[in-house]
Design goal:
It is elongated, with a radius of gyration of 29 Å. The longest helix has 22 residues. By secondary structure, the chain is mostly helical. The termini are far apart. Strand 2 and strand 3 form a beta hairpin. Belongs to the 'phage' integrase family. This is Tyrosine-type recombinase/integrase.
Length: 384
Amino acid sequence: MEIYKRYQKKEPKKFSWTYRIRYYDENGKKKPISKSGFKTSKEARIAGGIIELKYNQSGISEKENITFHDYAQSWIDTYKKDHISEHSYYIYSLIPTEIKNCFHETKLKDITKADYQNMITAYGKNHVRESVSKMNSRIKAIVQEAVDERIVYTNFTHNISIASKVASKDAGLKYIDEIEAKKLKTLCLQSLDMNSIGNYEIVFGLLTGCRIGEVSGLTWNNVHFKNKTVSIVNGYDYNGNNGFKDTKTESSNRTIRISDELLSILKKLKKQQRELFLKQGYRDIDNLVFRNGNHQIISDNAVNKSLTTKLRDKVKSKNIITFHGLRHTHASILISHGVDIAYVSQRLGHKNVAITLNIYSHLLQKAKSQQEEKAMEILQSELN
């Protein structure tokens, strides 16, 4: 091991101490490892000694000098790319960019806990606490793998302070009330045609609680007019144009009952679609329900934009929701009218009732209060 002074180019009189170690890789090729920035030769020698000990005990990884953001990208490509949904992979793909914006070309092994805390603190200035926590959890898994590979010795993401200067959205903002839902449905029903397929989707989402991917992936084969049901068996990659994909979870595959009103709306759409496609000489081999007059499945962004415009300009709602908010609206209406939570859970395609209870706990608390009042009225009148 070599220990020497390294002078700064811009300020020749200033220097720091550096260690350099030469080792042989798996192919017998001699390679150097060095690190500078130590205030004293003793500090450099101790740090270099740790690396030498590591080399003697378990060898040195080829990734020893990998940057933080390159390691994160490599981990995501290896463990996530072909194992999670397109949307989830997109979320993970943002992580290396966040890391590079903060650490640039800093090597993973050179990141300290204080450095990482500064990154998370900066991230919290523009994101809600939940997002900050999720970001930390994902990066924690990445760094843990680096610990397992012996690139770093400890996981510097442990016991990090999670904070945010952005207020979390109130649960009430995620859905609209029943009066607003009626106004929205009426507004969409006024313009149901192939050029405004989003109106069909909004009504369908409102009356079924389906996710946007489930709506986009619905085929006419899975609309059962006689039984008054629809079967949810596919999602759809409307962003990557890769066609069908699996539903979010295994429990998302379900068959749900639909109202006579929605059956009539779907019959109207099928008639419009059949007549237009016949005129155009077009045949949809996928037999998709919500393919528009241009033979496209519109994106979630397009639907959300239309939904926002309607809620803001026509319904005059203070609660501007996304398509997923229609799912919460559907559930809230059923819960508020006393529909059994187990049925609501199955209808939404949740894995178990506990998930539903957790998501809609605030609504259930309100329903509980109403049920308590009803129970007291019964006990008061029937036992007197």
